[in-house]
Amino acid sequence: MPRPRTPIGTFGEIHLETLPDGRGCASTRFRDYDGQLRRVQATAGSSRAAERKLKEMLAERAAQALGQGDLNPSSTFRHLVDVWLADLDLEGGLAPSTRDLYERNMVQLVLPAFENYALREISVRKVDQFIKTLAKTKSYSMAKQARTVLSLAFGLAVRYDAMRQNPVRDIARLRKPTTQVMSLDNAQIERIRRSARTWRRGPGVVGPPPDGQLEDVIEVMLGTSGRIGEVLAVRRCDINVTTTPATVRICGTIVSPRGKPTHRQPFPKTSKSTRTVSVPSFTAAALRRRLSKIESDDPEHLIFVSRNGTPLTTNNIRRRLRAVLDGAGISGVTPHSFRRTVATVIDRAGGADLAAEMLGHTSSEITKKHYIEPDEAVNPVTAEILESLAPRENGGDLG
């Protein structure tokens, strides 16, 4: 069998000798980045000094051999981040919102902890302790997001031969805290509707009154299960109110890339999220109200727009909704709570598969785990079954 070749960046036995002028010389054969073995030597005042100098030269040369190009083991983590972000842009496979999210998570959550380390100094233990601390002091969600961007960046370093392995792969598993999905009940929904109708209306309110869009956004979220960005991206051409029931096509979302104007992205979160849903009568009524206020015949015209005719931002609606919820005395509710409400109601009547289809999920497991509120009520047929255990008349036959 052929003898395995020594790895790139390794060297053989070091030979020491004394030169005629009395200086020391240390030499060895080094396997370079191109796989070729080359003789490397160093001289100094003594043989031992020459050996130390040679080892320093070899360490530097190994770092260069293992990381040809933009990265090597001596590169700082900050430099890795710059190369990684440039690589993301070169690939161009991410939605702009996802690309911005990755950068934000890296800069805000991860970079402060690792920016001054060289890549060769980052161990599994360092990464493991960082992720555990983040989960404990901040949140599971932040730790999970940090782990994602770390793994992606270190994966690039491995591909560039700047790291031998991805340290994220060997850290302890993140344990998600137990949470229970909560949906809105009918009473809460009515309180939210009343609060939305009265928000910033009445005597003493400074500025123009609300234009009614928030109330209609709520009804469309409840009737379509759409994410807030998907609802704000609905156009005239996506609505059909001439059928019974009316339908809405969910096929885009509103994004606000950093440094760029808010605009409609022509696809939603995932390919499965593109769907046409039949909506209840209260949602159809809200859609008709929006259509009646649009003067343009342009089929691409958004049904929810600012006073200047520009797309509404998701942050704008979230801010208004928080004010409405405060007025209703309801806390802990986000636009996602409406999706959970839709999922729970449909699950109770038609099952988790139908709920997943409505929400645009690829699997009902996702819907059951994150969106459907657990039903604590056991099927009442159990009472009828257990009647067989009822006491018999006169105490029964004990013999």
How are the secondary structure elements laid out?
Blueprint: E1 15-18, E2 24-31, E3 37-44, H1 47-66, H2 77-91, H3 96-114, H4 124-137, H5 140-159, H6 186-198, H7 213-224, H8 228-232, E4 239-240, E5 247-250, E6 253-255, E7 263-265, E8 275-278, H9 281-292, H10 314-328, H11 335-350, H12 352-359, H13 364-370, H14 381-385
Antiparallel strand pairs: 1-2, 2-3, 4-5, 5-8, 6-7
Task: Please supply descriptive tags for the structure shown above.
mainly alpha; 14 helices; 3 domains; DNA polymerase, domain 1; 45% helix; three-stranded antiparallel sheet; hpI Integrase, Chain A; 399 residues; elongated
User: Do you know the CATH topology of the largest domain?
Assistant: hpI Integrase, Chain A
Rough outline: elongated
Strand content: 5-15%
Q: How are strands sequenced across the largest beta sheet?
A: 1-2-3
- Rounded Rg: 32 Å
State the helicity in percent bands: 40-55%
Q: How far is the N terminus from the C terminus?
A: 84 Å
Q: Could you state the order of secondary-structure elements as H and E?
A: EEEHHHHHHHHEEEEEHHHHHH
Give the class from helix and strand content and strand pairing. Answer: mainly alpha
CATH superfamily of the largest domain, please? Intergrase catalytic core
Domain Core-binding (CB): 75-158
Pfam family, one: Phage_integrase
Protein name: Site-specific integrase
Region (Disordered): 255-276
